[in-house]
Amino acid sequence: MTDLQTLPSLPPYGMAKEEKRAFLTAELTQLCDWHAQRCPEYGRILSAWPTRLEKAASYEQLPFLPVRLFKEFSLKSVADEALHKTMTSSGTTGQQVSKIYLDRETSALQSKVLAKIVGEFLGKQRLPMIILDSSAVIKNPAMFSARGAGILGFSIFAREKVYALNERMELDVEALKAFLDKHQGEDIFLFGFTFMIWQHFCAGLHKAGYQPDLSKGILIHGGGWKKLADQKISTERFKAELRETCGVTRVHNYYGMVEQTGTIYMECEHGHLHAPTWSDVTIRRPEDFSVADKNESGLIQVSSLLPRSYPGHILLTEDEGRILGEDDCPCGRMGKYFEIAGRIQRAEVRGCSDTYEQKA
Predict the structure, then answer these.
(1) Does the residue 119 lie in any domain?
(2) Alpha helices of 17-165 — where are they, by DSSP H?
(3) What global pTM score does this model have?
């Protein structure tokens, strides 16, 4: 496998189709063997898989785990004494949550790759950051929820930061005004979870009658689209609301999950989600799990080279989507680009913003 020092140095979107396919096949095959030797449960799954590792012609033939397994079992490929932290997925009361076990090397690798991906959209310099959430969400640093981990993970791009909401989830107008006065004329990095932004930030601006000038803002947001879809709020309306309330025009959604932290799929300027060098998306037909064709909808499988301390490198999600193209997006980034259709029917609501709304 490529060593942990070399992996983060790869260009995020600079590997063409055939080169990337060969690279991922070799790396993921070795990663399967790595986890089989260190995680007994994964080893048993691998031994029962119909295709042996040495016979796999591509990573699409390698074993995938249903993402729900991480709710049912404690899957790890390192000894307990090597664990650095445990991350949990979002979950409403009574729901099981995924537990993801990280050692220091895996955690550091995730942070470095996340920095390379997001740096493509924010630039190399740290920026003043407005977190469109409350500081109350950051609790026990040893047991991160998906929402808290997202805030802390993206905070590495901040030179200075402020929370837009107080502990009662109300807009902190005075804190925002002071922060924007201090950083007048500068680019501002804004981060938050989609439904939280809609329900608390945008609604808070209306309630307060406050229209901050965030025309130099760059917003990165993710999660919570199910609640917006239920309210018939489209991506276009969400972006229009931000333009009208605070002047933000540079808006990038992202797709990701706690089970593959660090591997995120960023939305480009043309509204397409992109798979970076370290990961890929495969669409599988739900009736037989065969690989779907371009523009054909199905279940989303995500593959990543980052999980080393737990066998989360090839996962079948509970989301539906379709591949739109590869290496030919108008934005110029190489790799597959795709769209998300939503959750499969009867799947648990588990996005950070969705979960918050159910708890509320």
Answers:
(1) yes
(2) 17-38, 40-48, 69-72, 104-122, 146-154
(3) 0.90
